[in-house]
Specification:
alpha/beta; binds D-xylitol-5-phosphate
Length: 221
Protein backbone atom coordinates (compact mmCIF):
# COMPACT_ATOMS: atom_id res chain seq x y z
CA UNK A 1 0.00 0.00 0.00
CA UNK A 2 1.35 3.38 -0.99
CA UNK A 3 0.50 6.62 0.86
CA UNK A 4 1.44 9.70 -1.15
CA UNK A 5 2.85 12.51 1.01
CA UNK A 6 1.85 15.79 -0.59
CA UNK A 7 4.68 17.62 1.17
CA UNK A 8 6.71 17.45 -2.04
CA UNK A 9 3.76 18.23 -4.34
CA UNK A 10 3.47 21.50 -6.25
CA UNK A 11 1.38 23.53 -3.78
CA UNK A 12 0.31 25.97 -6.48
CA UNK A 13 -1.58 23.07 -8.11
CA UNK A 14 -2.54 21.07 -5.08
CA UNK A 15 -5.92 19.89 -6.34
CA UNK A 16 -4.41 18.59 -9.60
CA UNK A 17 -1.49 17.00 -7.78
CA UNK A 18 -3.80 15.10 -5.42
CA UNK A 19 -6.13 14.03 -8.23
CA UNK A 20 -3.21 12.93 -10.40
CA UNK A 21 -1.50 10.90 -7.71
CA UNK A 22 -4.76 9.10 -6.83
CA UNK A 23 -5.37 8.37 -10.52
CA UNK A 24 -1.78 7.14 -10.73
CA UNK A 25 -2.57 4.49 -8.12
CA UNK A 26 -1.76 5.92 -4.68
CA UNK A 27 -3.86 4.22 -2.01
CA UNK A 28 -4.19 7.26 0.20
CA UNK A 29 -3.04 10.84 0.76
CA UNK A 30 -0.60 11.46 3.62
CA UNK A 31 -0.92 14.91 5.20
CA UNK A 32 2.23 16.17 6.93
CA UNK A 33 1.01 18.71 9.46
CA UNK A 34 3.90 20.63 11.06
CA UNK A 35 3.83 23.39 13.66
CA UNK A 36 7.34 24.87 13.67
CA UNK A 37 7.68 23.70 17.28
CA UNK A 38 7.70 19.91 17.43
CA UNK A 39 9.56 19.99 14.10
CA UNK A 40 11.55 22.84 12.54
CA UNK A 41 9.13 23.52 9.69
CA UNK A 42 5.62 24.83 9.04
CA UNK A 43 3.23 23.30 6.54
CA UNK A 44 -0.56 23.44 6.61
CA UNK A 45 -3.49 22.79 8.91
CA UNK A 46 -7.25 22.28 8.90
CA UNK A 47 -8.17 25.01 6.36
CA UNK A 48 -6.06 23.41 3.64
CA UNK A 49 -7.25 19.92 4.58
CA UNK A 50 -10.84 21.16 4.37
CA UNK A 51 -10.29 22.12 0.74
CA UNK A 52 -8.44 18.91 -0.02
CA UNK A 53 -11.15 16.77 1.53
CA UNK A 54 -13.33 17.65 -1.48
CA UNK A 55 -10.94 15.86 -3.84
CA UNK A 56 -8.94 13.49 -1.69
CA UNK A 57 -9.85 10.20 -0.01
CA UNK A 58 -8.71 8.35 2.00
CA UNK A 59 -6.50 10.69 4.01
CA UNK A 60 -4.16 10.19 6.92
CA UNK A 61 -3.10 13.12 9.04
CA UNK A 62 0.45 12.82 10.37
CA UNK A 63 0.47 15.36 13.18
CA UNK A 64 4.01 16.58 13.83
CA UNK A 65 2.80 19.08 16.38
CA UNK A 66 3.17 19.77 20.06
CA UNK A 67 -0.14 19.27 21.84
CA UNK A 68 -1.82 17.12 19.14
CA UNK A 69 -4.92 16.65 21.33
CA UNK A 70 -5.97 20.20 20.52
CA UNK A 71 -6.46 19.34 16.82
CA UNK A 72 -7.99 15.86 16.85
CA UNK A 73 -11.58 17.03 16.48
CA UNK A 74 -10.63 19.26 13.53
CA UNK A 75 -9.00 16.49 11.53
CA UNK A 76 -11.61 13.90 12.45
CA UNK A 77 -14.35 16.33 11.43
CA UNK A 78 -12.67 16.86 8.07
CA UNK A 79 -12.92 13.17 7.26
CA UNK A 80 -9.38 12.00 7.96
CA UNK A 81 -9.47 8.22 8.10
CA UNK A 82 -6.33 7.94 10.19
CA UNK A 83 -4.90 10.41 12.69
CA UNK A 84 -1.32 9.76 13.73
CA UNK A 85 0.35 11.40 16.72
CA UNK A 86 3.94 11.20 17.88
CA UNK A 87 4.95 9.29 21.00
CA UNK A 88 7.32 12.18 21.74
CA UNK A 89 4.60 14.85 21.48
CA UNK A 90 1.62 13.28 23.22
CA UNK A 91 2.03 13.54 26.98
CA UNK A 92 -1.07 11.44 27.57
CA UNK A 93 -0.66 8.98 24.73
CA UNK A 94 -3.27 6.47 25.84
CA UNK A 95 -5.85 9.23 26.23
CA UNK A 96 -5.09 10.73 22.82
CA UNK A 97 -5.27 7.37 21.02
CA UNK A 98 -8.55 6.52 22.73
CA UNK A 99 -9.99 9.88 21.75
CA UNK A 100 -9.01 9.34 18.12
CA UNK A 101 -10.89 6.03 18.06
CA UNK A 102 -13.85 7.54 19.85
CA UNK A 103 -14.04 10.11 17.05
CA UNK A 104 -14.43 7.27 14.55
CA UNK A 105 -10.89 7.37 13.12
CA UNK A 106 -8.09 4.86 13.07
CA UNK A 107 -5.48 5.66 15.72
CA UNK A 108 -1.89 5.94 14.53
CA UNK A 109 1.26 6.40 16.53
CA UNK A 110 4.61 7.54 15.16
CA UNK A 111 8.18 7.19 16.41
CA UNK A 112 11.15 9.42 15.62
CA UNK A 113 14.31 7.60 14.54
CA UNK A 114 15.90 7.80 18.01
CA UNK A 115 12.81 6.65 19.93
CA UNK A 116 12.95 2.98 20.91
CA UNK A 117 10.31 0.40 19.97
CA UNK A 118 9.64 -0.43 23.61
CA UNK A 119 7.73 2.86 24.03
CA UNK A 120 4.93 1.26 21.99
CA UNK A 121 4.40 -1.76 24.23
CA UNK A 122 1.90 -0.20 26.66
CA UNK A 123 -0.26 1.26 23.89
CA UNK A 124 -0.44 -1.65 21.40
CA UNK A 125 -4.07 -2.46 22.30
CA UNK A 126 -5.07 1.11 21.51
CA UNK A 127 -3.31 1.48 18.17
CA UNK A 128 -4.41 0.66 14.62
CA UNK A 129 -1.32 1.85 12.77
CA UNK A 130 2.34 2.38 13.64
CA UNK A 131 4.31 4.90 11.57
CA UNK A 132 8.06 4.51 11.89
CA UNK A 133 10.08 7.54 10.82
CA UNK A 134 13.17 6.67 8.83
CA UNK A 135 14.19 10.35 8.68
CA UNK A 136 14.04 13.04 11.34
CA UNK A 137 10.65 14.61 10.70
CA UNK A 138 10.37 18.13 9.33
CA UNK A 139 11.30 17.93 5.68
CA UNK A 140 10.67 15.88 2.58
CA UNK A 141 13.46 14.72 0.33
CA UNK A 142 15.81 13.39 3.02
CA UNK A 143 17.75 10.14 2.81
CA UNK A 144 16.46 7.08 4.63
CA UNK A 145 18.41 6.25 7.80
CA UNK A 146 19.08 2.53 7.22
CA UNK A 147 19.86 1.81 10.90
CA UNK A 148 16.16 2.35 11.71
CA UNK A 149 15.18 -0.71 9.66
CA UNK A 150 16.21 -2.96 12.51
CA UNK A 151 13.65 -1.20 14.71
CA UNK A 152 10.99 -1.88 12.07
CA UNK A 153 11.79 -5.61 12.27
CA UNK A 154 11.54 -5.44 16.03
CA UNK A 155 8.14 -3.70 15.88
CA UNK A 156 7.02 -6.22 13.27
CA UNK A 157 7.77 -9.01 15.76
CA UNK A 158 5.99 -7.11 18.54
CA UNK A 159 2.88 -6.78 16.36
CA UNK A 160 3.00 -10.48 15.47
CA UNK A 161 3.29 -11.46 19.11
CA UNK A 162 0.38 -9.20 20.04
CA UNK A 163 -1.90 -10.98 17.58
CA UNK A 164 -3.38 -7.63 16.58
CA UNK A 165 -3.79 -6.58 12.98
CA UNK A 166 -1.79 -3.38 13.41
CA UNK A 167 -0.57 -1.79 10.17
CA UNK A 168 3.18 -1.15 10.08
CA UNK A 169 4.08 1.85 7.97
CA UNK A 170 7.40 3.48 7.14
CA UNK A 171 7.90 7.19 6.44
CA UNK A 172 10.98 9.01 5.16
CA UNK A 173 13.27 8.48 2.21
CA UNK A 174 11.17 5.70 0.70
CA UNK A 175 12.04 5.50 -2.99
CA UNK A 176 12.02 2.92 -5.77
CA UNK A 177 15.49 1.83 -4.65
CA UNK A 178 14.90 1.81 -0.86
CA UNK A 179 11.37 0.38 -0.57
CA UNK A 180 12.55 -3.23 -0.75
CA UNK A 181 14.67 -2.87 2.39
CA UNK A 182 11.73 -1.41 4.30
CA UNK A 183 9.42 -4.17 3.05
CA UNK A 184 11.94 -6.81 4.04
CA UNK A 185 12.02 -5.35 7.55
CA UNK A 186 8.27 -5.91 7.78
CA UNK A 187 6.59 -2.67 6.67
CA UNK A 188 3.45 -3.17 4.60
CA UNK A 189 2.52 0.44 4.00
CA UNK A 190 4.87 3.05 2.64
CA UNK A 191 4.71 6.84 2.75
CA UNK A 192 6.35 8.27 -0.35
CA UNK A 193 6.70 11.99 -0.98
CA UNK A 194 9.57 13.22 -3.14
CA UNK A 195 9.97 9.72 -4.59
CA UNK A 196 6.65 10.22 -6.40
CA UNK A 197 6.21 13.98 -6.73
CA UNK A 198 9.73 14.64 -8.02
CA UNK A 199 9.36 11.89 -10.62
CA UNK A 200 8.15 12.60 -14.12
CA UNK A 201 5.59 9.79 -14.31
CA UNK A 202 3.65 9.19 -11.08
CA UNK A 203 1.96 6.05 -12.43
CA UNK A 204 5.20 4.39 -13.51
CA UNK A 205 6.86 5.30 -10.21
CA UNK A 206 4.03 3.87 -8.11
CA UNK A 207 4.06 0.70 -10.21
CA UNK A 208 7.83 0.37 -9.69
CA UNK A 209 7.44 0.96 -5.94
CA UNK A 210 4.81 -1.80 -5.73
CA UNK A 211 6.91 -4.19 -7.79
CA UNK A 212 10.01 -3.71 -5.65
CA UNK A 213 8.05 -4.02 -2.39
CA UNK A 214 6.47 -7.26 -3.62
CA UNK A 215 9.83 -8.68 -4.73
CA UNK A 216 11.22 -8.00 -1.27
CA UNK A 217 8.34 -9.98 0.25
CA UNK A 218 9.30 -12.94 -1.86
CA UNK A 219 12.91 -12.72 -0.73
CA UNK A 220 11.86 -12.53 2.94
CA UNK A 221 9.95 -15.82 2.66
C1 LIG B 1 8.76 14.06 7.10
C2 LIG B 1 7.37 13.63 6.68
C3 LIG B 1 7.36 12.62 5.57
C4 LIG B 1 8.07 13.09 4.34
C5 LIG B 1 8.12 12.06 3.28
O1 LIG B 1 8.65 14.94 8.16
O2 LIG B 1 6.68 13.07 7.76
O3 LIG B 1 6.05 12.19 5.30
O4 LIG B 1 7.50 14.21 3.83
O5 LIG B 1 8.79 12.61 2.21
P1 LIG B 1 9.94 11.84 1.45
O6 LIG B 1 9.32 10.64 0.85
O7 LIG B 1 10.41 12.85 0.45
O8 LIG B 1 11.00 11.49 2.47
ZN1 LIG C 1 4.76 12.01 7.26
Amino acid sequence: MISASILSADFSHLKEEVTNVITAGADRIHLDVMDGHFVPNLTFGPPVVRSLSKVSRPMDAHLMVTNPEAYLADFAGLGCDVITVHVEAAHHLHKVLTEIRDMGCRAGVSLNPATPAVTLEPVLPFVDEILVMTVNPGFGGQKMIPEVLEKISKIHRMIDASGRGIVLEVDGGVKVDTIAAAARAGATRFVVGSGIFKSSDYGATIAALRKNAALADTIAV
